Amino acid sequence: MKLLVGLGNYGSKYDGTRHNLGWMALVEWMKNQPGGIEGFRHQEKFKGQIYSKPGITCLFPETYMNKSGEAVVPLMNSLGIEPKHVIVLHDELDLPATTMRLKFGGGPGGHNGIRSMIALAGDAFWRLRLGIGKPENPAFKVENWVLSKFGPEELSVWAKLMPELFEAIDLCLADKAELAMNKINRKVKA
């Protein structure tokens, strides 16, 4: 059993924001699966929306980013999933926009959702880091940047990158994370 987690802030006012890129990407992956989202069984418990089918559970925490671990860890425990079988999709300020990196373990790198998970479950889980870059203007506060909405051009670039992201997720699910890392841990030119 594998657990895919799309990090973001819950609520319609956060739809389309940079901080919700992990959530958005996981929704797109689910839509691309045989049967689409309808092919997954939907539940609401453990402080999140849960979609599952044989061998795969997807979680969208409803705890807000800073408390993501409070949704993820109880579900992991309930399903008997070890951290090494968890793949978290999240936005990453420290990566240039439209780049992706897959990594196992390590620190939170300033990401409060990852920090929350590490505090409750340790760091031995996979992270699919989706670059949102930093604001060009240093006076623009990071908090405002991550909560700002993507522009149409940025969304267009991410849409073109989705097949590569889907492949990385599928390789991780097939226990081929090393191959996924070789494919996506490079600069992606938009």
Query: If you average the pLDDT, what whole number results?
Result: 92
Q: Write out the strand line-up for the largest beta sheet, numbering strands in chain order.
A: 2-3-4-1-5-7-6
Radius of gyration: 15 Å
Query: Main sheet?
Result: 7 strands, mixed
Task: Provide an overview of this structure.
With 190 residues, the chain is α/β, with parallel strands linked by helices. The protein has a single domain, classed as 3-Layer(aba) Sandwich (Rossmann fold). 35% of the residues lie in helices and 21% in strands. It has six helices and seven strands; from the N terminus they run E-H-E-E-E-H-E-E-H-E-H-H-H. The protein has a seven-stranded mixed beta sheet with strand order 2-3-4-1-5-7-6, with helices on both faces. A hairpin with a 2-residue loop joins strand 2 and strand 3. The longest helix is centred in the last third of the chain and has 22 residues. It starts with a strand and ends in a 6-residue tail after the last helix. The relative contact order is 0.18. The model has no long low-confidence stretch (mean pLDDT 92).
Structural key phrases:
single chain; alpha/beta; Rossmann fold; 7-stranded mixed β-sheet; 6 helices; 7 strands
Question: What topology does this entry show?
Answer:
Blueprint: E1 2-6, H1 21-31, E2 41-45, E3 48-53, E4 56-61, H2 69-79, E5 86-92, E6 100-104, H3 112-121, E7 126-131, H4 142-146, H5 152-173, H6 177-184
Parallel strand pairs: 1-4, 1-5, 5-7
Antiparallel strand pairs: 2-3, 3-4, 6-7
Brief summary:
The chain has about 190 residues and is an alpha/beta fold. The chain has helices spanning about 20-30, 70-80, 110-120, 140-145, 150-175, 175-185; strands at about 1-5, 40-45, 50-55, 55-60, 85-90, 100-105, 125-130.
